[in-house]
């Protein structure tokens, strides 16, 4: 089964998505997500200009060989652009293999190890009352785990809160980056009060998660983790930037609050120390930014050896193709922990037709052969690329801070 054609489609049904389509001489078509929020066209070019010419005429079944051909063959390794491009090829090839076999991808990965995948949704608010109302709405939908983010009093805008009237949080807004403001002291005072109020209102029977979005120093993170312990968060996410993996040793010395890291990782080498020294509890790497199903499974297998569970990134900027691919992996890995699920804003549903289901807080990828998502190229053409940037963050004195 030879690859006869490959092409990239950039479309913006509500937000920008990059999709790779691969066709074979058997008439089977596979799709992969190549979306890198705020840097979409760099991956489209990497694929179109440098990868597609290498795919034509290649044997579509040889997923592992093609993965290494693209990774080692480029000489320039790793990085979000390269690894997102490789991920798109990898997922499209798994999609093709599943369709050829007449099986959903999770069967090819070893079969279901659980009946459904626990997902967490996002509750947020400009005030604690708004947060509580949103949390209640998520409980009514059946979520067993919910992330909580609330505007910090005194800050103009806080990460994770949707613009008024928007149901789904979308951080990439302006055609130039919008600037957010940050002050760690106010946040560190407020976050434990938010948890206290939420536990008081909703008790301990539901998982609560929180994302610090890389904004703390390691010692501040240790302090926050300790302050949150009485409220038993499911996890504290991205407490500090993770370029220096050893900085998490300091956090571990100060708190037993579980730590989740890795949505910006693209390779196993980004988390080797974090995993092998057991410095984190959940690894958040995901299919689209970490080299596809093939490489993500390697990361998850390493994590399994060290008692680290999975908790893949699943924000709305990861296309429904990634969401489906993630669910296939989640259903099969022994060390599954949780999966983020934010859903997608319409009109994304006109372009991506999905088969996955949500019942009582658990998701399932469905049993359609392959990944189980159909991509409508005609519908995609109706929504041209619309340049958008993620925000930049400054402290109150104007210093550029981590976002
Ligand atoms: C999350 C994330 C996202 C990212 C976004 C960047 O935990 O879901 O932090 O909201 O900021 O995916 O593109
Ligand atoms: Mg996050």
UniProtKB/TrEMBL annotation:
It holds the Pfam family MR_MLE_C. It comes from the Bacteria. Residues 128-258 form the Mandelate racemase/muconate lactonizing enzyme C-terminal domain. One of its GO terms (molecular function) is magnesium ion binding. GO terms for biological process: amino acid catabolic process; carbohydrate catabolic process. This is D-galactonate dehydratase family protein. It comes from Labedella endophytica.
């Amino acid at each position: 089964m030879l690859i006869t054609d490959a092409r990239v489609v950039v479309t913006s049904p509500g937000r920008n998505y990059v999709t790779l389509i691969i066709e074979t001489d058997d008439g089977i078509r596979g799709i992969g997500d190549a979306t890198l929020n705020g840097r979409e066209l760099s991956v489209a070019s990497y694929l179109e200009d440098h990868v597609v010419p290498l795919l034509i005429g290649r044997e579509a079944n040889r997923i592992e060989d093609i993965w290494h051909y693209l990774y080692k063959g480029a000489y320039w390794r790793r990085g979000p652009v390269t690894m997102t491009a490789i991920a798109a090829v990898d997922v499209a090839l798994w999609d093709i293999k599943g369709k050829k076999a007449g099986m959903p991808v999770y069967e090819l990965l070893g079969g279901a190890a659980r009946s459904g995948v626990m997902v967490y949704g996002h509750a947020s608010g400009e005030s604690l009352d708004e947060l509580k109302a949103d949390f209640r709405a998520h409980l009514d939908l059946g979520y067993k785990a919910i992330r909580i983010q609330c505007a910090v009093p005194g800050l103009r805008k806080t990460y994770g809160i949707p613009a008024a009237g928007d149901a789904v949080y979308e951080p990439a807004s302006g055609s130039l980056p919008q600037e957010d403001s940050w002050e760690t002291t106010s946040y560190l005072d407020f976050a434990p009060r938010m948890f206290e109020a939420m536990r008081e209102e909703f008790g301990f029977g539901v998982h609560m998660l929180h994302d610090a979005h890389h904004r703390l120093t390691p010692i501040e993170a240790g302090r926050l983790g300790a302050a949150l312990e009485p409220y038993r968060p499911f996890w504290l996410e991205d407490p500090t930037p993770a370029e220096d993996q050893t900085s998490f040793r300091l956090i571990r010395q100060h708190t037993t609050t579980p730590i989740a890291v890795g949505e910006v990782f693209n390779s196993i080498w980004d988390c080797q120390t974090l995993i092998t020294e057991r410095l984190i509890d959940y690894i958040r790497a995901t299919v689209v930014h970490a080299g596809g199903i093939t490489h993500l499974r390697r990361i998850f297998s390493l994590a399994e050896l060290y008692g680290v569970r999975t908790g893949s990134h699943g924000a709305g900027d990861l296309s429904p193709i990634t969401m489906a691919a993630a669910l296939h992996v989640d259903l099969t890995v022994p060390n599954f922990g949780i999966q983020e699920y934010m859903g997608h804003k319409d009109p994304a549903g006109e372009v991506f037709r999905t088969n996955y289901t949500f019942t009582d807080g658990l998701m399932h990828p469905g049993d359609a052969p392959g990944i189980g998502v159909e991509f409508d190229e005609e519908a995609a053409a109706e929504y041209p690329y619309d340049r958008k940037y993620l925000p930049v963050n400054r402290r109150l004195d104007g210093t550029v801070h981590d976002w």
